Amino acid sequence: MYASCIPTPTNCRREHLRQKRGGYRISEEDHPKKMPLSTAQLLRRAAHAGTQSGKFCQLLYDRQGETAIRRILGVLSLMKKYGTAAVEDACAAALDIGVYEYRFVRRYLERRPHPQMFLRQIDPLIRELTVYRDFINLKIKEPE
Predict the structure, then answer these.
(1) β-sheet bridge partners, residue 3
(2) Are 90 and 111 in contact, with CB atoms under 8 Å apart?
(3) 3-state helix, strand, coil in the chain (%, to 5)
(4) Which of 7, 37, 83, 98 is in the most buried spot, having the most CB atoms within 10 Å?
(5) What are the pLDDT digits (tens) for 40-70?
(6) DSSP letters for 110-134
(7) Residues with Cβ < 8 Å from 82, sequence gap 6 or more?
(8) Is 52 exposed, middle or buried (0-12, 13-18, 19+ CB in 10 A)?
(9) Distance, CA of 107 to CA of 121 (rounded, Å)
(10) CA–CA separation, 21 and 24 (whole Å)
């Protein structure tokens, strides 16, 4: 087995055995005693975005610890890509099934059909599309 050594203040060296890809092995004494402020803020952001996503991210952190921080960031980035409502549905499905993995939420969203994109009124100066349609129909029917 290969090992990497990381200096620590107590014994100058700590040996970490290599893990399979994506795996982590951190000894209990190396975990922080309290939740870092940045992690608490991240979990608050997830809870503020939606109740189901907040519960899901909190469960991720409770089960996986520090390794879940990147996964929580992934859930928040999925909200930008797919929308908050879609991620809320995916997190609710994960909580109902009992699968507490970021990968499940991501694949759920990837396989879900995207709703049709609708035109929306962005600026109050732009009139409704029906007004333009009626105007064009009126101009077409007018005799020259």
Answers:
(1) 17
(2) no
(3) 60, 5, 35
(4) 83
(5) 899 999 999 999 999 999 999 999 888 889 9
(6) HHSPPPPP-----STTSPPHHHHHH
(7) 109
(8) buried
(9) 32
(10) 9
Residues in Cβ contact with 72 at an 8 Å cutoff, skipping those fewer than 6 apart = 42, 43, 46, 57, 60, 61, 102
Instruction: Count the neighbouring beta carbons within 10 Å of the beta carbon of residue 65.
Output: 15
**CA-closest candidate to residue 31, choices 50, 48, 55, 14:** 14
- In terms of Cβ atoms closer than 10 Å to its own Cβ (0-12, 13-18, 19+), residue 100 is buried
Contact 138, 130 (CB under 8 A): no
Which residue in this structure is represented by tokens 């190396």?
A: 30
Find the Cα–Cα–Cα–Cα dihedral 82, 85, 89, 91, rounded to 10°: 70
Q: Residues 6 or more apart from 27 whose CB is under 8 A from it?
A: 14
From residue 127, give the alpha-carbon distance in Å to each of 63, 88, 110, 121, 139.
51, 33, 35, 8, 17
